[in-house]
């Protein structure tokens, strides 16, 4: 008896006749070659006129101080008095995981896009903001033509939607207290910000505890200047954050120091008045009361001394100008380009092959649905 293999209708439908597909591609080989030649020409043009990309990077580690005050043993006594000295004695530290959030903040990018950069085609430094918004710096290039073609082909739906919605007005933050807390981009700044997000990046190595900042530009020197500008701004913002913490701690300690000083002086006066009024009284009760007042005075004096030390340390932190970031690998000017013309050409050729083969099956499917487009398609 012969064994027959039964296949379900689902299996028959899911099976693909690869031989028939390959034969169909061979039949339409002239069409595939023509489309491929078009993509090769486009790839050559894109490779010849593409802007070089240089990437500059630096590696750094955040610095933090964790030394405690010499009188930290009295923190428990201060806690009994309702004063928290534990947070005051330790140095402030900012988690490296917060740094990427700083890199995407409005005020940070608003300053970064105005960092002057040197380009060979311009006699004086120019910022990315001016380069994108000032008509004096608009130059006719092949990449600009490609961007325009892309905008009105692939990006045409977005252009149509934008025309329907109309130009969005700039967001105006009202004057007053809220302006110190709320920031907003203008429309021009937001367009530059989107470019910056592609040019500047920050990588956090959680395991090893270091960070890598990188910046890209069409020129080597400009990429290094952009990377250094981002690093300097990051140093500034983190230092300002720590300065704010230090000033808040100082204000808190100054108020506590005034309180402990007043309490210390009051206990001192109370002890002196009791000793004056009970001079020559040899009773056990008077001696016990004197010892109680003396103990309260010693505690108040020790607490006042401790808070005074913490206040002095807080004042030193406010005046401290030590860098908060230590560069392990400083910023340098890159010598080689990041992108490659050969890779660009290969990418265009690969995309041309995929597009031409896919369009063959796509046109076949359209004809199978009864459409008479494209014409002369066999």
Describe this structure in words.
With about 375 residues, the protein is α+β, with helices and mostly antiparallel strands. The protein is built from 14 helices and four strands. A four-stranded antiparallel beta sheet has the order 2-3-1-4. A hairpin with a 4-residue loop joins strand 2 and strand 3 (about 210-215). Helix 3 (about 30-50) packs antiparallel against helix 14 (about 340-370) and helix 12 packs antiparallel against helix 13. The longest helix is centred in the middle third of the chain and has 58 residues, at about 220-275. The two termini are about 45 Å apart. The relative contact order is 0.17. Mean pLDDT is about 80; it is low at about 1-5, about 10-15, about 65-75 and about 85-90.
What key attributes describe this structure?
378 residues, alpha+beta, 4-stranded antiparallel β-sheet, 4 strands, 58% helix, disordered N terminus
* Overall mean confidence score, pLDDT: 79
In this structure, how is the largest beta sheet organized?
4 strands, antiparallel
State the end-to-end CA separation: 46 Å
Q: Helical residue percent?
A: 55-70%
Class by alpha and beta content:
alpha+beta
Written as H for each helix and E for each strand, in order along the chain, the element string is: HHHEHHHHHHHHEEHHEH
